[in-house]
Amino acid sequence: MDDAVELRTRLRRCKTSLLAETVVGRGVAEDVAPPGDAARVCHYAENVATLGEGAKQRRSDMRRAHPLAGWPATLVANPALALAPLLVFLVVVSVVFPDRQDDEAGYLELARNLMHGHYATGRPNALLDADPSYPDLWFGPGLPLALVGPVAAGLSLTVMRLVGPLFLFAALVVFFKLMRRTVAPGAALVVTWLLGLYLPFYTVLPNLHSEPLAVLFVVLALYATARIVEGADYRWVAVGGVALAGLALTRVDYGWVVTAVLIALVVWSLFSRSRRAPRRLASMYALGLALCIPWLVYTHSQTGRVFLWGNSGSLSLYWMSTPYPHEYGDWQQANAVFSDPNLSRHKPFFTTLEGHTLSQQNATLEHQAVDNIRHHPAKYLENVAANVSRMLFDTPYSYTPQRLGALYFALPNALLFGVFVLAAVVAVRMRASLPPPTLPFALFAFASFAMHALLAAYPRMLIPIAPVVVWFVGTTFARNVRLVGAGPQGDG
Questions:
Q1: What string of DSSP letters covers 201-253?
Q2: How far apart are CA 392 and CA 409, in angstroms?
Q3: Residue 326 CB: number of other CB atoms within 10 A?
Q4: Per the structure, how many domains does the chain have?
Q5: Is residue 465 within 8 Å of residue 219, measured between CB atoms?
Q6: Is residue 225 part of a domain?
Q7: Do 318 and 454 lie in a common domain?
Q8: Could you list the residue range(s) of the whole structural domain that residue 386 is in?
């Protein structure tokens, strides 16, 4: 400390002498440097540099001596540790929040069926979803396969419901590693926490839902996509293909998304100057589709229909095509037309479905839906607009007043939509700085959103693509807006 005081004193004397000599020199001639001026300047600069280095060394020593020194690096190196409070929160929510109407009974029944070597048990002449205790091909086998172990072990329902928080936590850890490839560690951690606090996630935790597992598969596919466009080898094609197959088997509607993106990637590879990345991505999606062939063979054996992912699409399209006023295209149970006076106008049509097989019922529903759209195109477009609003804000619903519970989706999605628009504006202006995975990520998200907009959907249908939107917003702001500093890419 005495050395620092002495050095500061020397600096002050040197600076005073230098200024005085400079003034004298300027009095003689402004363009002639005073004698010894250059030497004193060099000496002064040398002392300043010495003092600066000493101060930096003292600050560094103090940081190393601090009891909490190095904890940010520890958290970044161990994302599971940094995100552990989120896991606790997810588990608490799954236990404390009240049950919601869901498909839990069907998933458990299908898991028991798989234990005994079969899957669909729907009665051939059942009116589609009239009895949830007889599950048919409405659900994919992804979540039931994950539940076979817990069901076989005889675990309680409360314990089995913990698979949702665990799947989401695993997705957040992978998402952090994905973010780390494009932004600084601190920014990656902040964005991951924001995704973990996305309120619609918590609406699917009190009961068994397919969305947490679907989110995990989506994030794995995104991470593999990022590695592929960065030039990684074909191991990541395999990882991504398995993830996409898991997604399509968990949420059968995403089978159509995988198919649509595959077609787009093939077209992209034909016209792109650099064909390596789109070809490898097309290989990844093709592998995901190929791994689903056993499921498609099974659905064909049960229904006689080719490339059938599940039974839900036909009924969803029918309700989406409804031409009647005060109906907004939201999904209804088929058997509700016989008991709900508001749906009585549909009763004559559904009466014609009784006694037919599920395959025949689906074919008839699709034919009637197409007929409705052809004769009432404006009403269908109105229903599509209502469906988009329903996916984002959980409203409107046919013959149903506004519900307070809609705020669980409306508030966070309105906020997310707002920052997405701002990020899109920034991205357009700074498009040269967008990371390579942006285009394939956007292609996947757009295909998913568009497909669900055309069929009767719920807000939770968008939950699997929330990581794509949050990644885009977080990456765009962190790299282009000086609120969170961007950093070099990491290994992830």
A1: HHTTSSS--SHHHHHHHHHHHHHHHHHHHTT--THHHHHHHHHHHHHHHHSTH
A2: 7
A3: 9
A4: 2
A5: no
A6: yes
A7: yes
A8: 164-492
Angle, in degrees to the nearest 10, between helices 466-480 and 407-429? 40
Beta-carbon contacts of residue 59 (< 8 Å; ≥ 6 apart): none
- For residue 244, the tally of other CB atoms under 10 A from its CB is 31
Among candidates 179, 196, 188, 190, which has minimal Cα distance to 91?
196
pLDDT at 378: 97
Residue 430 lies in a domain: yes
Can you tell me the distance from the alpha carbon of 109 to that of 125, in angstroms, rounded to the nearest whole number?
Answer: 19
Q: If pLDDT is split at 50, 70 and 90, which confidence band does 473 have?
A: very high
Residue 402 lies in a domain: yes
State how far the Cα of 148 lies from the Cα of 268, in Å rounded to an integer: 40
Reported as a single tens digit per residue, the pLDDT across 385-421 is: 999 999 999 999 999 988 888 998 999 999 999 999 9
Please check whether residue 86 lies inside any domain of the structure.
no
Q: In this structure, what token pair is assigned to residue 192?
A: 């991951």
Choose the weakest-confidence range: 133-137, 215-219, 300-304.
Answer: 133-137
Domain match, 45 and 177 both: no
Given a contact cutoff of 8 angstroms between Cβ atoms, the answer to whether 64 and 21 are in contact is: no
d(CA 314, CA 155): 35
Let me know whether 301 and 423 are in one domain. yes
Q: Are residues 436 and 299 in the same domain?
A: yes
Same domain, 312 and 177: yes
Strands (E), 64-179: none
